[in-house]
Amino acid sequence: MTKKKKICELSIEDQCLVRQALEARQNAQPPYSNFYVGAAVLGSDGGVSKGCNVERANYTSTSHAEQVAIDSLIASNGPVGICAIAIVGAPRDKEPNAAVWPCGHCRGIIWENCLGNKNVRILTVVSKDEVEISTIGELYPNAFGPEDLGIKIGA
Ligand code: THU
Ligand code: ZN
């Protein structure tokens, strides 16, 4: 079940993740949608990486913030598992005022590095001082992923 929480009541680790997602959103490049998304992912090795959406003129080559954050974590730390990801999205010049959950494409990408752990946390900023929290198991039930192909990521 999705829970609403005050950002100041989160663990230091999760507060830091939310802050980095907010920072990453400032670097987004969405000239077509004008919808700025930032993400920050916590690796199981303690590493954190940021990502933002990057849109391109052919539209289909757009990178989503969650994917950029995870790919950047892998580029720095190798194919590690993840513990949590924070996301924030809102149009330019608007404060985030609604939960932005990962799209279907990103849910699959997140699951790929969860190493089968359905409890990986997904936090989305809903206002300047609140987040909603869910898990990949809730957002991506009956998932398809590496386990279906008998693969262990990072092994
Ligand atoms: N977007 C993300 O970065 N992550 C998501 O999971 C949802 C959508 C971006 C893609 C596009 O640049 C903009 O938000 C509007 O769809
Ligand atoms: Zn997405």
From TrEMBL:
The molecular function terms of the Gene Ontology recorded here are: cytidine deaminase activity; identical protein binding; zinc ion binding
Q: Which Pfam families match?
A: dCMP_cyt_deam_1
Q: Does the keyword Metal-binding apply?
A: yes
State the Gene Ontology BP annotations. nucleobase-containing small molecule metabolic process; pyrimidine-containing compound metabolic process
Q: Got a GO cellular component term for this one?
A: cytosol
- On the tree of life, the source organism's domain of life is Bacteria
Q: Return the PROSITE patterns for the record.
A: CYT_DCMP_DEAMINASES_1, CYT_DCMP_DEAMINASES_2
Extract the InterPro entries matched here: APOBEC/CMP_deaminase_Zn-bd, CMP_dCMP_dom, Cyt/Deoxycyt_deaminase, Cytidine_deaminase-like
- Keywords (A to Z) from UniProt: Hydrolase, Metal-binding, Zinc
Give every CMP/dCMP-type deaminase domain span: 12-147
Q: Give the UniProt family note.
A: Belongs to the cytidine and deoxycytidylate deaminase family.
Q: Which NCBIfam families match?
A: PRK05578.1 (NF004064)
Q: What is this protein called?
A: Cytidine deaminase
The species is: Candidatus Kaiserbacteria bacterium GW2011_GWB1_52_6
